[in-house]
Write the C-alpha cells for this entry.
Amino acid sequence: MVSLTKVLRVLNVLIGIAAIALLAAGYWFAWRPLPQTSGRIKAPISSEGRIGRDRLGVVHISADSLEDAAFLQGFATAQDRMWQMDALRRLAAGELAEIVGPGMLEADREARKLRMRRIAEQQYRTLPQGDRALLAAYARGVNFYLETYRDRLPLEFHLLSYEPRPWTVVDSMLVGLQMYRELTTSWRADAGHAAMLMAGDPAKVSFLFPTATGDAVQPGSNAWAISGKHTATGSPILANDPHLQFSLPATWHQVHLQAPGLNVAGVALPGLPFVIIGHNERIAWGVTNLQFDVQDLYLEKFDPQTGRYLYRNRWEQARLEREWIAVKGQRPVEAAVWVTRHGPIFLNENNQYYSLRWAAAEPNGFEFPFADINRARNWEEFRNALRRFPGPGQNFIYADVDGNVGYQATGKLPIRRNFDGNLPVDGSSGEAEWDGWIPFDELPSIYNPASGILVTANQNPFPENYPYRVSGTFASPHRYRQIYALLRSRQKWTPEEMLAVQKDVYSPLSHFLAKQVVAAWDRHKSKDPSLEEAIELLRNWNGQMEKGTAAPVVATLFYQHLLRDVAEKAAPGKGLAYGFQAAPAVVEKLLREKPKDWFEDYDAFLLSSFADAVDEGKRMQGPRIAKWDYGRLNTVTLAHPVISRLPWIGSYFSIGRVPMSGSATTVKQTTQRLGPSMRFVADLADWDRSLQNITIGQSGHILSSHYRDQWKAYYSGKSFPLQYKKVKLEEELRVSPR
C-alpha cells in the first residue's frame, strides 16, 4: 500500500508545480505587459520629449511641438489603456462579436444600424487639416506602442485570443462618436411616448412627457464657478463632477501636457488627444451635458421589398447598405440597413417603419477644437474655440486668473420650425424638417453675473422667450437649487470645501414625497398599523440618502410604486414600461397641483402606493423596517468585462457590491448604474491647490500599482492635488528621435 506520507508528498509537489505555473503565467501575461516608464527609448518624433509619471501614475508629458505632444499622449495612453481603447472603438463600430462571440451580436447590430463607422469615415473626409494632423500624430503614438509592445500586449488580448489592428484617425473619431451617442440617445423615449399614447389617455400621457419644461431628472453632471468675492483667496474656484456610467477601467485618463504655447492638465478620453476637462496657465473649464434633443424619429411610408418611401407625394429610393458582422466561433452575419433622407430605417414592435435623424450623422463637418480650447488664454479665445465644437451639446463653465467666470452652451442644435421633436413625426409630409443649426452667438451665454455664482446641473438654460423651439430631457432644478443654496450659504470657500458640495446626498424630491405621505397618513381616518413604523421613520427623516439608514429605502420604494401607479392611470398596462427621464419631476408636479381628473382622493392614492412599497421592502429586507439599509438597495459593482470572468481570481480584480449613498436626485447623483466619473476642483489663486481624482486608477493593467489606487479616496469623497507647477515625478521615460 502507498503510505499517506507519500500521497501527501505527491500532492504537495503537484500544488507546488501548479503554484509555479500560475506565477509563471502571471508574470508572462500580466506582469510582462506593464509599460516601461523610465529610461530611454527612440521613437518617430521630431525632437526629444519626456513622459513622466507621479505617485498616482498621472502622465506628465513635455514636447517641443503640438504634434509630438499628441504622439506622446497617444503612446502613454496606450501604455495604460490599450485594451480599453480597442474595446471602445469596437463598441462604437459594432465589432465586439468578432472577439467576444454571439452574446454581443445585438449590440453590434444596433451600432451598425446607427452607421457609426460610416459616420466617422464621412466626417473624416471633411476634417480640417490642422485637426487631422493632430489626430494623426496621436494615432502614430498609439501605433508606436503596438509596434513596440506587440509581443507583450495586455492580458485581455491573450484571454480573447486576438491582436489589435493599427489605430487610425477614424478610430479616434469613433471614440468621440460613442460619447456623443451615450449623451444624446433620446429616440427610445420618443418611441415610448408614442406607445403610451396609443394605449392611454392622450392628455394624461402628455402630462407624463413634458416638453422642455426644465423639470426632468436624468443622469447628468454638476459644474460651477464662483467668483473671488465668495472665496478665501479672492480668486475664483471652479468645480466639475461629470456623472457617467461606471466602468472599469475608469472613463478618464489623467494627463498634463507641455509644448510651445501649451501647458494644460486635466482628464482625457482614452482614444482622443488633449484635455477634455481641466486648466492651463490662465483658465479652467468644466462641462455638463446640455441634453438638448438632437434626435428625431420619422414614421415612414416605406416598402421594405424595394426600399422606396414616400416624401412630399413622390416616391424616393432609400440606399441599401450591406455589411457583414464577424462573430467569433460562427459564420459572419449580414447586417443590411436601408437609409432614407432622414436616416436609417428601424422596424418597431407595431411593425411600423421609423427612420432616425441624428445630428451626429449630418454632413455638417466634424471638427476637433480641444487643442484650441487647451491653449485659450481668456474668455474671447475660449468662446472662439467653442464655436468649432460640433457636439454633443454641452454646458461649459469657465473661470480665469483675472477673476472672471462664464458659462457657454455649445454644440450643433437643430432648428425645428413646425414641431417639438418629442414624438415621432410623419416623414412623408416634408413638414417636419430641420432648418439648419441654432447660431452659436444665439446660444445661452453668461459672463460675470452679479451674483458671482454660475451653476449648471443639466437644467434648462434656455429663457422662456427664446426665439427657437427648445426640446430636450433637461434635468429638474433640484440639483441646481441645492448646489446654489449651498454655495450661497457661506463665504470664504476653499478648494477642499468644494468636495463637500460634490458629495452632498440631500434629495429634495424624496424629502417632499416623505412629507406628502406623512401628511396623507395624518389626515386619513382609517390607519393601517402595519405602516406606522415606516411612517414614523419618514416623519423624522431629514432627506439624506445615506447608506446604513432605513428611511431612504422606504422613500425610494415609495417613489417607484408611485411612478408605476401614475403611469398605469395614464396608460393602463404600460405602468412598468414608463421610464421617461422627466418622471420624478412629473410625479412631484402632479402631487403639488393635484388635478381632479387624475385621482378623486390623493391621500388614498398615496397610502395605497405606500402600502405596496412597504410590502416590497419587507420581502427584500425583512419585517423589521428600522433594520433596513439603503446601502443594500443602492449598490455598485465595477466588474472588468473580461478579467472578472476568470475562475477563482477574476472577482479579485473587480469592485463590488459596494453600498453607496446618494440617488438620482441628489448632488452626488449615484445609482447602481452611474455616478461621478471624476471630481475636479480648480483653484485660480494657486494651481497647485487644485484637486482631481478619477474613480479607480490610471492603469488598466491588473498588476499595476495604479490599477485601483484612487478608489478608496473616491469612495470616501476625498481627492488628490493636481500637480502642475510643482510636479514631483516618481518615474520618467525620455523619448529621443529615431
